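re: the backbone from monday

yeah here it is again, tokenized this time
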């Protein structure tokens, strides 16, 4: 299975490089509440990554956003495709609107998603150096020596990130190439997801007459966009509060070392309002956006909100509720989400990070007072994060709800240093595995 994934990921990487050389590629954020598409144009200028950049094992190309569009997501639940035809129509709508704005046609997209029940693994592999100087072949040997976890059938590798290297007794090396020694040890973070979720996503994109040139976790993309350099280096957690799921990504020394997902999000808050006040989901979403909050004051008892609606019942549609009552519905669900996040952070040993910074992003993070509540429940070092500004990005796409989209732009152009970027020796895989890899690639691409 590992060789199958490496073959597919390398094929996507080559496809992405070819699209970037042609000058245009699209990124697609397939979320539960919205589907966003950004079209990037590349200037063709190469910049070398350095030690102070995210990832330092390859080059990076400059880009500009020339098209952007969003549409309401349909057929997606918990970040996973639930109704194929509805999701296909929504993707087509977003991509066509972005193409119209950019006045260019795109054939290749890089996508991210939040579902799949991701599971993180820390792996270690060791190899003896052949010529005492570390080369990319030695790195490939060390990474391929990592012992894969036995999760059973139905899992796929989404990310395989080398997070640390050691030569003999010298640990914590970012880039060991060119250094001398006898033994090279590589530590790798492996993120696996449900294979059925990935296959549905691949098939849906294929039905939209698009070629997939890359696939990433939304939590990973949000972390790239929302964390600043010091947070990436010293250690921080990005909590991406989306519509159907809340993603967590832990970064240390500028690499993601753990990822997880809570299957709760802003749509569950909207659903609670709809049920509690007996209003439609559209009305509940409007009330949450305009009047929502998690901290009630004495003024909120007297601040009356007109419910509205179109039921035809005049008495029902002219009702009013106090803002305190609305907050009383919103806060328990938000506390449940934050409590789940705290439990996941405790499981991964968040307290051991050098800097215990938590950054909240995503559309649901915009509820007033959420940062203060999160600071009391998760820790004192909590801030609201907005995605980094990229060239050409429209003002409407600069909010926390677009953290995954902007992060996907950075993922497309950042120096690539995932495991399959190094030429793992084919002799480690039997011919049957290679034949299976080719068959797997043809079936899903």
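seq for it, each position gets an aa:
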């Amino acid at each position: 299975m590992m060789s199958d994934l490496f073959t597919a990921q390398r094929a996507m990487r080559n496809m992405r490089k070819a699209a970037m050389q042609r000058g245009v590629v699209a990124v697609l954020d397939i979320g539960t509440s919205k589907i966003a598409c950004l079209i990037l144009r590349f200037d063709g200028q190469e910049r070398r990554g350095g030690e102070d950049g995210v990832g330092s094992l390859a080059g990076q190309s400059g880009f500009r956003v020339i098209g952007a569009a969003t549409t309401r997501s349909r057929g997606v639940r918990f970040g996973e495709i639930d109704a194929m035809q509805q999701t296909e129509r929504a993707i087509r709508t977003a991509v066509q609107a972005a193409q119209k704005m950019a006045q260019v046609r795109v054939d290749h997209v890089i996508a991210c998603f939040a579902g799949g029940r991701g599971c993180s693994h820390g792996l270690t592999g060791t190899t003896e150096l052949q010529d005492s100087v570390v080369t990319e072949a030695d790195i490939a040997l060390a990474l391929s020596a990592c012992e894969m976890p036995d999760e059973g059938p139905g899992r796929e590798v989404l990310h395989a990130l080398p997070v640390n290297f050691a030569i003999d007794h010298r640990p914590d090396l970012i880039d060991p190439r060119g250094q001398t020694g006898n033994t090279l040890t590589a530590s790798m973070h492996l993120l696996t997801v449900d294979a059925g979720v990935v296959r549905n996503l691949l098939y849906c994109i294929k039905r939209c007459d698009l070629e997939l040139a890359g696939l990433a976790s939304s939590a990973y993309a949000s972390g790239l966009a929302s964390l600043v350099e010091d947070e990436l280096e010293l250690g921080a957690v990005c909590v991406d509060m989306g519509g159907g799921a809340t993603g967590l990504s832990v970064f240390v020394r500028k690499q993601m070392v753990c990822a997880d997902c809570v299957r709760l999000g802003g749509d569950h808050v909207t659903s609670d309002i709809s049920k509690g006040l007996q209003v439609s989901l559209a009305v509940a979403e409007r009330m949450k956006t305009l009047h929502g909050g998690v901290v009630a004051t004495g003024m909120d008892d007297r601040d009356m909100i007109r419910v509205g609606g179109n039921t035809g019942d005049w008495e029902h549609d002219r009702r009013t509720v106090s803002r305190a009552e609305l907050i009383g519905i919103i806060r328990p669900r938000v506390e449940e989400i934050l409590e789940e996040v705290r439990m996941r952070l405790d499981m991964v040993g968040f307290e051991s990070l050098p800097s215990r910074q938590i950054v909240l992003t995503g559309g649901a993070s915009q509820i007033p007072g959420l940062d203060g509540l999160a600071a009391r429940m998760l820790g004192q070092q909590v801030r609201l994060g907005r995605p980094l500004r990229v060239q050409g990005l429209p003002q409407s796409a600069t909010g926390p709800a677009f953290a995954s989209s902007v992060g996907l732009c950075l993922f497309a152009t950042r120096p690539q240093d995932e495991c399959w970027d190094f030429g793992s020796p084919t002799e480690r895989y039997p011919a049957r595995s290679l034949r299976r890899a080719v068959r797997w690639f043809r079936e899903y691409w």
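DSSP finds 13 helices and 18 strands in the chain. Confidence is low (pLDDT under 50) at residues 45-61, 425-445.
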